[in-house]
Design goal:
By secondary structure, this protein is α/β, with parallel strands linked by helices. It has 5 helices and 5 strands. The chain has helices spanning about 20, 25-40, 55-60, 80-90, 130-140, and strands at about 1-5, 45-50, 70-75, 95-100, 120-125. The chain has a 5-stranded parallel sheet, with helices on one face. It is globular, with a radius of gyration of 14 Å. The structure holds ligand CA2. Ligand CA2 binds next to loops. Ligand CA2 binds near residues 10, 11, 16, 78 and 103.
Length: about 150
């Protein structure tokens, strides 16, 4: 199994600012955590982070026919991007949406997610652990289990 982990704008700043919301661990720590989990599970994993909507769309398209699952934290594009939603629909790869913070407990505008319309699951407010849960979801999904 091959999983692609996509992180959107500003998530490269993890651990540098706003530790009260996103924790004090860095983006590199996050990738190492997910990598370790995937190694244990015998899953190949690739990482992609971008601050640019079109680059995220391009990377999703590149995954077509190659990745068995996508874990995505689209960052602020969660709440705005029809383009990312359409790309995920186009490639039809099982996708789990992750948010480090509990977006339902923050500003009103964070409650809406375009990606939720296509995601097999949305995980919110579990910190970095949410990404590991997403890997488990995709693993079970590929075995034909329910969410
Ligand atoms: O909770 C999440 O994971 C979010 O997807 C994070 C996005 C935010 O726009 C979403 O509403 C919820 C923002 C990521 C910004 O990351 C930062 C990390 C460190 C310092 C500043 C921003």
């Amino acid at each position: 199994m091959n999983i692609l982990v996509i992180n959107g704008p500003n998530l490269n700043m993890l651990g540098i600012r706003e530790p009260g919301i996103y924790g004090s661990d860095t983006y590199e720590d996050l990738c190492a955590l997910i990598h370790g989990k995937c190694e244990d599970e015998g899953i190949d994993v690739e990482f992609f982070q971008s601050n640019h909507e079109g680059d995220i769309v391009d990377r999703i398209q590149e995954a077509y026919g190659k990745s068995d699952g996508i874990v995505i934290n689209p960052g602020a594009y969660t709440h705005t991007s029809v383009a990312i939603l359409d790309a995920l629909k186009a490639v039809s790869i099982p996708t789990v949406e992750v948010h480090i913070s509990d977006v339902d407990e923050r500003e009103e505008f964070r409650k809406w997610s375009y990606v939720s319309l296509v995601a097999v699951q949305t995980i919110k407010g579990h910190g970095f652990q949410g990404y590991l849960e997403a890997v488990d979801t995709l693993k079970n999904y590929s075995k034909g289990d329910a969410k």
